[in-house]
Amino acid sequence: MKTPNSRPVVLCLSGHDPCGGAGLQADIEALLAQGCHAAPTVTALTVQDSVNVQDFRVLDRAWVLAQARAVIADLPVAAVKLGMLGSVEMVDTVLEIMQQLPGVPLVCDPVLRAGGGGALGQDDVGYAMRERLFALSSIATPNLPEARILAELPDGTADQCAEKLLPYIRHLLITGGHGDEREVHNRLYSRDGSQHTFVCQRLPGSYHGSGCTLASALAGRLALGQELVSAVQFALDYTWRTLRDAEQPGHGQYLPRRLPLDFC
Q1: Which of 15, 10, 11 is nearest to 211 (CA)?
Q2: SS3 of 256, please?
Q3: What residue stretches are annotated with the Pyridoxamine kinase/Phosphomethylpyrimidine kinase domain (predicted)?
Q4: Short-list 259, 212, 217, 39, CA closest to 114
Q5: Whether residue 119 has pLDDT greater than 70
């Protein structure tokens, strides 16, 4: 039985990053920071570091289904966060899992590229997410390069990509920061025509795991019952702080500091 002190459970379907900057470790840390409990279900194993991804292997769908079913049978899932799926078959696996969670908020982070640019799945994975998963999702959180892939608009603006994608999904958050602008504009589009732009100061350097951090924090806020626009603002502010305080333990990108130093 759920006790008054129990934390909302977020089922995370994502890949494992051995350097700990992105993937399931990012999900776990970001959700802990929101006061949520992460239930990490591994979809793929990767060979990557803070520089780039070298290889990946998608798990057998039976293993992924078994992990998710064990969580669903035991824990009250309040939200679901999707990260790296890696194959069209895994998209279908998620569809099967979500049939057991009607009405549960689903945050779809369409992970198609690593921070260093390496592919984490073919473009047909993104198209399958758009065609099959977006309808079940509360919101998708692509960056602009991912939005261009999903919308099949190689040079499209955020507005153009949103126009192409909103027939598939109710809410779309297209994050900025991939150009050389002095301010980062993150744009939330909704199918009802409403738009919100969240502006933040651009930080120096490049970061590994920022997208995972944002999507997980957003899933956590929705699991806590926060209204969507407010949850987006909260998750963006939190993510910016993790990047402001990021560290560079390796030879590549900075890793977000998702937990305070005195966290216990």
Answers
A1: 15
A2: coil
A3: 17-253
A4: 212
A5: no
Q: What is the mean pLDDT of residues 58-76?
A: 97
Interatomic CA distance for residues 28 and 213, integer angstroms: 9
- Give every CB contact of residue 169 below 8 A, 6+ residues apart in sequence: 108, 134, 135, 137, 139, 140, 191
Instruction: Return the CATH number of 9-245, one of 3.40.1190.20, 3.40.50.620, 3.40.190.10, 3.30.1050.10.
Output: 3.40.1190.20
190/261: higher pLDDT: 190
Is residue 73 packed enough to be buried (19+ CB in 10 Å), middle (13-18) or exposed (0-12)? exposed
Local structure of residue 50 (DSSP, 8 states): S
DSSP-H helix ranges across 129-258: 144-151, 158-165, 210-223, 228-244
Backbone φ and ψ of 260, nearest 5°: -65, 160
Distances (CA, A) of 46 to 23, 156, 203: 9, 30, 28
d(CA 42, CA 89): 14
Q: What is the mean pLDDT of residues 232-245?
A: 97
pTM, two decimal places: 0.94
- Report whether 86 contacts 116 (CB < 8 A): no
Instruction: Give the side-chain half-sphere CA count within 13 A for 244.
Output: 10
What pLDDT does 66 receive?
Answer: 98
Residue 51 CB coordination number (10 Å): 16
The closest of 85, 62, 89 to 12, measured between CA atoms, is 85
The rounded distance, in Å, linking the Cα atoms of 11 and 73 is 12
- DSSP H or E stretch at residue 25: helix 23-34
Q: Which residues have C-beta within 8 Å of that of residue 65, sequence separation ≥ 6?
A: 93, 96, 97
CB 164, CB 153: distance < 8 Å: yes
